Amino acid sequence: MSTRVGTPVQGELLAGRYRLDECLAEYPRTQRTLWRGTDQILARRVAVELRVPGGGEAEDFLTAAMTVSRIVHPAVIGVYDAVDEGGRAYIVREWVQGTSFGTSVRETPMAPERAAAVVRSAAEGVAALHAAGVAHGNLNPASVIVDADDKVTLTDLRPGDEASPAADVRSIGALLYAALTGRWPAEVPAPQPGLPDAVRSYGRPCSPRQVRAGIPAYLDALAMDLLDPALPAPSAADLVTELRRYDVEAPDAGVLDAIPLDDTPRGTRWAKFALPGVGILVFVLLAWLVAISPLSSVTGRYPSTKDPTEPRGGAAVGSLQPVPVAGARILDPGGDGTELGGAELAVDGKDDTGWETQEYTRPNFGGIPGKTGMGVRVDLGRAEHVREITVRLSAPGSSFELRTGPDSDDPTAYRTVAGRQDAADSVTFDVPANVTGRYWLLWITSLPPKDSGFGIAVREIVFNR
Predict the structure, then answer these.
(1) Rounded-to-integer distance, Cα 175 and Cα 173, Å
(2) Domains and CATH numbers, the chain
(3) 3-state secondary structure of 446
(4) Of 1, 328, 391, 417, which sits with the fewest C-beta atoms within 10 Å of its C-beta?
(5) pLDDT over threshold 50, residue 144
(6) Whole-angstrom Cα distance, residue 205 to residue 418?
(7) Ranked by mean pLDDT, which of 281-285, 317-321, 378-382 comes out on top?
(8) 359 DSSP 8-state letter
(9) How sure is the predictor about 60, in pLDDT bands with cuts at 50, 70 and 90?
């Protein structure tokens, strides 16, 4: 451990009552440590998270704790105390006995009925947060704890400007997908999820039923709907109601118990909660039978598994809308820093301006050691699905890739969504429906001829939803 002033030591007593018993984890990037401790006044075990230093640098850390402390719910971790000592700050929280969600599904995915129940419990906690005006902001396989009785506790909340209820609901969809498959879909970013990426076909995640046998079609469809950025995310409270439908409480129910199907298009799933409980169960059983028959090809009438390997039709003419851009900067990890200015000119809405490389002696950026490319990193301000991206260049002949990923200066941290070799001077890409991103990288790998050398100007990058 660090010997920095304020660094905690085993056996130390904080605020005259919280004894530090064992350091469980260290997080150097965020300057935090997690300890198992004992509240000596109330004689109970607690979790203590410390940050060094405190003061102004710990303001967000403490503010988040105070926000969460107002919420009392069985599925949300309790916060008992928050202290700023200047040299360090710490939060005292409820001690939760159990294993992480990721550990629970890593070796063996959950049975469908258990997956629905566990994820519903997580959704109930999220709904309570949203009702209090707070987004979790950090739902992932490590921040959800499951005990021996399948009681769920949400930990490590990160409420703030980056958090949103819609993102929380998408993360619940990823939890459901992981519960059914043991895999975490990369479309929902998570810090070190600890699970392999979804099985993919043509770059798209396979549905749970394609990965594992025995998953009900309606549960499969719900997981894929929640991950689909083309569908509006329901509220967490509505999702709790929806998940209650999928508790497999009457596995022997037969088709003779069915009620007539309604003709409501599937896109309005979240408006159909008024059906009686028994009718709902037999409705989904009949829908499953119909879904596997040839009649399931009738568009919008019956639930489907939404096979993500099937190509989607293009957008209707005139239906696209521009996506505003929050900012742009240049990534040039192998460069000398002389080409970093002017990134905003590539997203200013004007084709007569742009960001331009310098002139190189060879198409591969002069063969400079360590310089494999460079590009424009665009920030849309929030994660969302864009349906179409157009790149306008000063000349044909370049090679480049469109990538999306985290807020990083490392181009390898971004995954490639599309690319073009020997590109025209204007290229439009249709973005796969399952791809959502806030940060997009136009990564140029080869330059076209320019004057007596090689170079390119990026006139405009246009995003449409």
Answers:
(1) 5
(2) 13-94 (3.30.200.20), 99-297 (1.10.510.10), 327-464 (2.60.120.260)
(3) strand
(4) 1
(5) yes
(6) 16
(7) 378-382
(8) -
(9) confident
Residues 366 and 360 sit within 8 Å (Cβ to Cβ): yes
pLDDT of residue 186: 92
> Around Cβ 261, how many Cβ atoms within 10 Å?
12
pLDDT of residue 292: 43
- Which structure tokens are listed for 4? 């920095």
Q: Are 403 and 370 in contact (CB under 8 A)?
A: no
Contact, 231 vs 308, CB < 8 A? no
Edge-first strand order for the sheet with 79-84 is 13-14, 18-27, 32-39, 44-51, 89-94, 79-84
> What local confidence, expressed as pLDDT, does residue 304 receive?
32
In the chain, % of residues over pLDDT 70: 83
Q: Retrieve residue 344's tokens.
A: 């905003």
Question: Dihedral sign, CA of 58, 410, 171, 271?
Answer: positive
Residue type, 270: W
More confident residue, 157 or 263: 157
- For residues 462 and 57, give the distance between their C-alpha atoms in angstroms, rounded to a whole number: 37
Edge-to-edge strand order for the sheet containing 415-420? Answer: 327-331, 374-384, 437-446, 399-405, 415-420
- pLDDT-based confidence at 190, cuts 50/70/90? confident
Sequence-separated (6 or more) residues with CB below 8 Å from residue 317? none
Which residues, including other chains, have CB under 8 Å from residue 77's CB and lie 6 or more apart?
A: 68, 93, 94, 96, 153, 154, 155, 157
